[in-house]
């Protein structure tokens, strides 16, 4: 039996491109026209980034994320991401993740280990599969985005098929994009969350 820490086991990597999207409905229509399969309907996600007191993960370009799915947050995903490389418009980084059935207990474990929540960001995500790529349509408090994940060749082919402008690829995470937005507008809340009535 191969151990998860076995150095002979290939590394798991996230290879993706993130693009701004002014017209999600047009991209959605293009996905349908191209015969893409809908993997998950538009759903709410709350993502929490954790770090230690010294902020060593962030300093190293790493991330520890607990994602809660749905408004009630009953299911979740715990994710580690390594430092990113950005080449030719495509971001590549190590990614390890596992589903958790009790996000509250997962959070308690992280806190017991000395990690604290540093940032929360929300989005509504719809996921598709187009040939060899996973395509996500994200609605966020700072705009809409398309993320395409797959091999570099497949990503470029998919972006072209969707008639998106590859030159507009964004190398930054949502946390970085929001931090930049807050510099422009300091009245924004500390977390990237949707405005709620009342």
Summarize the structure.
The protein is of the alpha+beta class.
What would the average pLDDT be, to the nearest integer?
92
Series of H and E elements: EHEHEEEEHEEEHH
Give the total of beta strands. 9
Helix tally equals 5
Supply the number of structural domains: 1
Largest sheet data: 8 strands, antiparallel, barrel
Distance between the first and last residues' Cα: 55 Å
Cα gyration radius (Å): 17 Å
Low-confidence stretches: 1-7
CATH superfamily: Hypothetical Protein Pfu-838710-001
CATH fold call: Hypothetical Protein Pfu-838710-001
CATH class: Mainly Beta
Commentary on this structure:
With 198 residues, the protein is an alpha+beta fold. The chain has a single domain (13-184), classed as Hypothetical Protein Pfu-838710-001 (Beta Barrel), CATH 2.40.320.10. Helix content is 23%, strand content 41%. It is built from 5 helices and 9 strands; from the N terminus they run βαβαββββαβββαα. It has helices at 24-33, 56-59, 103-112, 152-161, 174-184, and strands at 13-20, 37-51, 63-69, 75-81, 85-87, 90-100, 116-130, 133-140, 143-149. It has an 8-stranded antiparallel β-barrel with strand order 1-6-4-3-2-7-8-9. The radius of gyration is 17 Å and the shape is globular. The N and C termini lie far apart (55 Å).
């Amino acid at each position: 039996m191969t151990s998860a820490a076995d150095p002979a086991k290939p590394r798991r990597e996230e290879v993706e491109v993130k693009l701004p999207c002014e017209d999600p409905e047009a991209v959605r229509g293009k996905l349908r026209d191209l015969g893409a399969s809908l993997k998950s309907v538009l759903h709410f996600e709350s993502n929490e980034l954790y770090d230690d007191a010294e902020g060593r993960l962030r300093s190293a370009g790493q991330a520890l994320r607990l994602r809660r799915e749905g408004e009630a947050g009953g299911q979740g995903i715990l994710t580690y991401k390594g430092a990113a490389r950005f080449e030719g418009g495509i971001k590549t980084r190590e990614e390890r993740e596992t589903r958790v059935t009790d996000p509250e207990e997962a959070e308690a474990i992280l806190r017991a280990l000395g990690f604290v929540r540093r940032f929360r960001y929300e989005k509504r995500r719809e996921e598709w599969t187009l040939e060899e790529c996973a395509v996500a349509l994200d609605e966020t408090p700072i705009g809409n985005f398309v993320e395409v994940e797959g091999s570099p060749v497949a990503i470029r082919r998919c972006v072209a098929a969707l008639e998106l402008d590859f030159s507009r690829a964004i190398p930054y995470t949502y946390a970085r994009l929001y931090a930049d937005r807050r510099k422009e507008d300091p009245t924004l809340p500390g977390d990237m969350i949707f405005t709620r009535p009342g």
